[in-house]
């Protein structure tokens, strides 16, 4: 709950921070193209971990020939094991050919440092051990194109006006004198410009984030009042969530630009691509069409799977549910403990599912993980839904989420985002060179 501040200057900077919101930069619309191929997620384990491109490739020792084995009876026929997919090329780590493959897939409009973009995209795939397939490269390229138009730190049109409009609205709301606001913003900032001048010239989220950090660090009472909170929550060429970068780096050994300063890393091209590609492809997703993976990039991992689960629950209970992919109720990304409408609907099915409330709750708590698809609540809901429908009901559905941001001037949805990325993905596949021979 917000409270009035004790001094005009402190209240001023609380208001300034509320204006700093993130969102997607607009880029040109794509044209219609052909149907897609599915997106793969992971590189097979036979590919070695990435190594620096300048490191010499180790030469394996020559094996000692083993003595010929004694003849054995012919074994009885057995089913052949499924084939193990091979990497694109044996020289995957640091491969110049791999970077060339990515460069061939980049949109023709990418003319500035084309080789640098290809190197950083391929470098992220190598570091994340993701399969270097045309489909995977094109999935990443499509999201970059949609989110930033291949700008490492994309310009947000009208960002300064948006910030000032929000500041003025909150100044009026909290009855803060305009003179107090002007006086506070006239103070010089660490880069020599006044805070007002920096607000007047804001163009990118990186600039906004740095401005906010300076306000917190340099203004009297800023850190005490705001606790180091920075409202810029996405950044870089794929507009990846900084919270995701922090969580991902906590589970892996990220050694990219700026090391542990992940906020700064996300705003670099290499760091933004690393975390953006990890968010897009670095998790197993059971989708038949990459459209749903693109929806997940916007709405959160497994949102498309969970929306289909909500759809099945709604059909079984007759209750109207919002198919947003969130099975529990959340406050700032943390389960609130208050039951959601989806949770209540699933609990009403407990007798038919032959599950207790505790087991249902335990299953729903795995909704953001791959393992939710193997829980009893998931399996039994879909078994009932299939039986009621007389056919297999969909296991994937488009999340119904309206996108909201001060930068968005028209109604936009997750479906809108996913469909445009899909068209860019299909266009990228068309640029793939024809197979040799």
Structure write-up:
- The structure is a single chain.
- This protein is mostly helical and 437 residues long.
- It has a domain at 8-25 and 155-232.
- Helices cover 46% and strands 3% of the residues.
- It has 19 helices and six strands.
- A two-stranded antiparallel sheet has the order 1-2. The protein has a two-stranded antiparallel ribbon with strand order 3-4.
- Strand 5 (402-403) and strand 6 form a beta hairpin.
- The radius of gyration is 26 Å and the shape is globular.
Describe the SSE topology:
Elements: H1 8-18, H2 96-105, H3 114-128, H4 134-148, H5 159-173, H6 178-185, H7 195-200, H8 205-218, H9 222-226, E1 234-235, E2 240-241, H10 242-251, H11 262-266, H12 269-281, H13 290-299, H14 303-317, E3 330-331, E4 334-335, H15 341-348, H16 350-353, H17 357-364, H18 376-389, E5 402-403, E6 412-413, H19 414-430
Antiparallel strand pairs: 1-2, 3-4, 5-6
Helix pairs in contact: 1-5, 1-6, 2-3, 3-12, 4-12, 4-19, 13-19, 14-15, 14-18
Q: Could you give the order of strands across the largest sheet?
A: 1-2
Shape: globular
Number of strands: 6
Low-confidence stretches: 1-37, 40-91
- CA(first)-CA(last) distance: 66 Å
Mind telling me the C-alpha Rg?
Answer: 26 Å
What is the residue-mean pLDDT, rounded to a whole number? 78
Q: What order do the helices and strands follow?
A: HHHHHHHHHEEHHHHHEEHHHHEEH
Strand content: under 5%
The description of the largest β-sheet is:
2 strands, antiparallel
Helical fraction:
40-55%
**SS-based structural class?**
mainly alpha
Number of helices: 19
